[in-house]
Amino acid sequence: MKIKVASKILDANERLAAENRKIFRNKGVYVINLMSSPGAGKTSLLENTIRALSSSIRLGVIEGDIAGTDDAARIACLGAPVVQINTGGACHLDANMINDVLKELPLEELDLLIIENVGNLVCPAEFKVGEDMKAMILSLTEGHDKPLKYPLMFQESSALLINKIDLKPYIDVDVNKIKRDALSLNPSTRIFEISCKTGEGIGEWTAWLKGLIG
Ligand code: MG
Ligand code: ZN
């Protein structure tokens, strides 16, 4: 019975996600659902991405957090349109939450919308929100065992950004194992080694994004 209820919720979510996607298509916005555990560097990646692309791509952001507006404030500082969703306890964003805030964004004026999901390696991967693509960040400090322990997010993500690569000399983590395991879960994943602190790899990521949007 519990399984039945859960699948009903997911079905309803998929229908609403498809509606969101139709809206994004009509407005000509490419949408990325950005996921990671807390502290991996989602907002820092957004800051770097906005700085790199602001002259060529019109980028908007939806911030998802259980509470607080710190992340939206960081994005607003850079002049990008941003809406903060506070889930009030829910550990992921769903299509309904996204649908509720669409009217707050100038979608016609955007080329790219990045939805920063709630920090959590588990259920954000289960709920579509209307995105064209999922991307995820794994920071080196989380360890090389995460792809095989949390396979769904790695399977669902078209891009894996391995962040905090500047810490490699200081910690015992096998970057090649992360890559190998991530590719075993999703052979077409595009992997980027980046540092939001030093800027390493950000150029490759933003060039790839530009290519996606055309
Ligand atoms: Mg954040
Ligand atoms: Zn959740």
Task: Kindly report the name of the CATH homologous superfamily.
Answer: P-loop containing nucleotide triphosphate hydrolases
What is the top-level CATH class? Answer: Alpha Beta
Radius of gyration: 17 Å
Task: Write down the overall geometry.
Answer: globular
Bound molecules: magnesium ion, zinc ion
Give the CATH topology: Rossmann fold
Q: What's the tally of helices?
A: 8
Query: Strand content of the residues, in percent?
Result: 15-25%
How would you characterize the largest beta sheet? 7 strands, parallel
Q: Into which percent range does the helicity of residues fall?
A: 40-55%
Return the structural class: alpha/beta
Q: Work out the count of structural domains.
A: 1
Describe this structure as you would to a colleague.
- The chain is built from eight helices and seven strands.
- It has 214 residues and is an alpha/beta fold.
- Strands 3-2-4-1-5-6-7 form a seven-stranded parallel sheet, with helices on both faces.
- Helix 3 (70-77) links the parallel strand 2 (59-65) and strand 3 (82-86).
- It has helices spanning 2-27, 42-53, 70-77, 95-101, 146-149, 151-156, 175-185, 202-213, and strands at 30-35, 59-65, 82-86, 112-116, 133-139, 159-163, 190-193.
- The relative contact order is 0.18.
- It has one domain (2-213): P-loop containing nucleotide triphosphate hydrolases (Rossmann fold), CATH 3.40.50.300.
- Bound molecules: magnesium ion (MG) and zinc ion.
- The site of magnesium ion (MG) has 4 residues, from helix 2.
